[in-house]
Amino acid sequence: xxxxxxxxxxxxxxxxxxxxxxxxxxxxxxxxxxxxxxxxxxxxxxxxxxxxxxxxxxxxxxxxxxxxxxxxxxxxxxxxxxxxxxxxxxxxxxxxxxxxxxxxxxxxxxxxxxxxxxxxxxxxxxxxxxxxxxxxxxxxxxxxxxxxxxxxxxxxxxxxxxxxxxxxxxxxxxxxxxxxxxxxxxxxxxxxxxxxxxxxxxxxxxxxxxxxxxxxxxxxxxxxxxxxxxxxxxxxxxxxxxxxxxxxxxxxxx
Length: 254
Ligand SMILES: [Fe+2]
Known about the structure:
Helix content is about 40%, strand content about 15%. The protein is an alpha/beta fold. It is globular, with a radius of gyration of 17 Å. The termini are far apart. Fe (ii) ion binds near residues 23, 25, 99 and 154.
């Protein structure tokens, strides 16, 4: 085989150092993530080959686009788990969290809070709009923290309307918000600006978690390529992340 072809298809388990993924959309047909059980199996196999050994799944809860219901998601999670076991996919599924967006329906959600969280320590994966600044979202985060939830902000590097150097991010860190950057941001999958911002946040020491945000086979290819990406490798070499601590702290009695 030609060297460049071999190199293109190469996948190395460089993410073993992280071990666990806490952000992905592998429950099929409930959001913009995986479209079938087969696609989930393919993507999760790639994640395994790239070094991940355990994962939580985190479907979108985003009103009105993905008005998911916790009971339905839990049932579908059971189906996914069975399917992966039948197919001999080795990844250990540890549970379900949600990726909750602070949207127009969020105030209602807060009236009767019933979040799907990561592990027994109630880590809540939260996102805000990718396009529009919602005034006062920090106050909503504070209200959630008052409910004894530990907030993980998903992909802070992707909110391009927030200036990385502004006091906004610093205040969120002071507030105890955990930052989770996407691995594919580091490899340039979302463009050079998200890449630059992810690196900057990491250099500031503000990023505790790296996640795949795996959606479909295009992302799986992206993750495969990321195993050969110099920037990604450098980040893993030079910085520590708390993915493993998260699993040790939060593993539920299964
Ligand atoms: Fe996501």
